[in-house]
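Now for today's protein:

——
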Amino acid sequence: MYHIAKPSAEQLLWQDMELGVLIHYCMEIYNPGFKKYKTAAVRKKLSPDIINPENLDVEQWVRSAYELGAKYAVLVANHCTGFSLWPTAENDYCTSSLKWKDGKGDICRDFIDACKKYGLKPGFYYSTGCNGYYDINDDEKQDWFSEKYRDYVRHVENQVTELWTQYGELFEIWFDGGIIPVEKGGPDIFPLLKKYQPQAVCFQGPKEHQSNLRWVGNEDGLAPENCWATTNAGEARFDGTQPDEQAGVGDPDGIYYWPAETDMPNRDNSAFGGGWAWKEGEDDKVFSPEYLLDCYVRSVGRNSNLLMGMAISRDGDFKDEEQFKAFGKLIKETFGTPIICVEPEATEVTLGVPQDKNARFFVVREDIENGQHIREFVLEADGKEVYRSNCVGHKRIIPLGALNCGDVKTFTFCVTESAGEAKLRDAAIY
């Protein structure tokens, strides 16, 4: 007996967007000699007095995302230092303490305005589990019911309330590492989310929320070959205990529809902060557009969204805009116009390749409005089976070069097993 979990309207919209960005303007860049990226000790070594970006240009960040082809953007509003990119009422470790704009600046507001200008859906990242200002790190042994942690929980609840009430409707809310459940002493996030931002999709949000996303299990831009949008309770790292390698695969018969988001930095993970944070002299660690296209195929093409990191410089601009332009151009050149595209009425479809064309990718999308139904499929090239797998979901991109299909002129896609009635949204060759 199959179980078919169904997506929310918000999850369907999110999956159709396919490509987003995660913008890191993290205070660690002002102390690049600091080795541990996520630790409470950061705050003890960093004063707001040294943060005075000369060329802070939030619009340039969002414009770069637009040039990439991203449809949504998530700003890291509060990273592990605990420094807030808005004038929070909870403490003075925020933009109001900066020389920049005489303490009157609000990077979160500038971000929202830029997203409106370029048509990107906005979102905020907030670290609930690592905060240097309050000397909290959930990765360390912690008494979550101590007076110190209870006080911290109140600050978290107040700060997310600020973010969720002052900047309008948000598209995605990002909880890095998940949230300690309320019953274990964590912040009571769900009632606030339900009250202020019920429409948002949440990366590793409270499990009661109707539109959650889960982590793919790595930061390499790689989703598993079969990456199901469904999973079971406890498999989305809500308590931070699920093994990473198990997080991405999911379960075809899972009771929750929580699709995976694949995140990766725009610089090599040997760079400062694992590539998520900027450091001078590391331009050689910027990924090539060709490498990023391969990651796109292995994430978006495996029923996941790709969330590209953006490492913002100490000056306050995004130094790798040309990388994003080139990657965006390559995506359009590769997947902008199909050689052929059809909307089949059956679960078997045959596509022919014109004599003057060279087929590089076979792309198929399942109609997932009522959940994932396809459990196995076969791809034939000129009548010969060349590829067999299980998961389609929102999109499956099959590279044909690795299958030695360069001269093939007829491809047949056939669903061989399904849970109930499967439907195809479309099939195409690029």
Observations:
- The first strand starts at residue 19 and ends at 24.
- The two ends are 37 Å apart (CA to CA).
- The CA atoms of residues 290 and 327 lie 7 Å apart.
- The chain has two domains: 9-335, 340-429.
